Amino acid sequence: DTEVTQTPKHLVMGMTNKKSLKCEQHMGHRAMYWYKQKAKKPPELMFVYSYEKLSINESVPSRFSPECPNSSLLNLHLHALQPEDSALYLCASSQAPPSGGVTDTQYFGPGTRLTVL
Amino acid sequence: EDQVTQSPEALRLQEGESSSLNCSYTVSGLRGLFWYRQDPGKGPEFLFTLYSAGEEKEKERLKATLTKKESFLHITAPKPEDSATYLCAVQAGRDDKIIFGKGTRLHILP
Q: What is the pLDDT, as a whole number, of residue A2?
């Protein structure tokens, strides 16, 4: 089973709202990722969690706040977003985090389509 | 600077017309190359991981190959359901960063 689940599938929020995106995997993977994808563009890495610790933050604005409560769950808390933040937000996981020359395949969830009004 | 370039940007084929998609890369210290398929509004679906030049992998009508500078995704006798965007990604460098290409949008006409 290589399934990563994400909720909600769609989210519409105003610029003053606070909302959260959720991601879950039960493959025993120890690395989890958040990506942002605009239409007709490749995914852009936002955050990487390695063994439940934040290991990479790609200079993402503080209105995006990731959280990894345990090895299976990953959240992305959203606050005071801008219309340009509207995008498909993808979660991915891999068995091991990228390090020390080890390659590991990332498995993606279906994404959350976010619209900021 | 590490780069991944996919070509063509878009490709239209008749059903049954075989072709190849290209992913060329200029990176230091390739760790692995990944191919994904992505349908509109959905997450990328993993297809293949290739680790070293000369490696080949197959799945149904798809075959991925890797050289020292590029990878090809060969599609044999495609069907309309093969229509999707195909993404190539490379893991490389001291920090093992993953770099995505911009994708090839493939459209198979019945």
A: 66
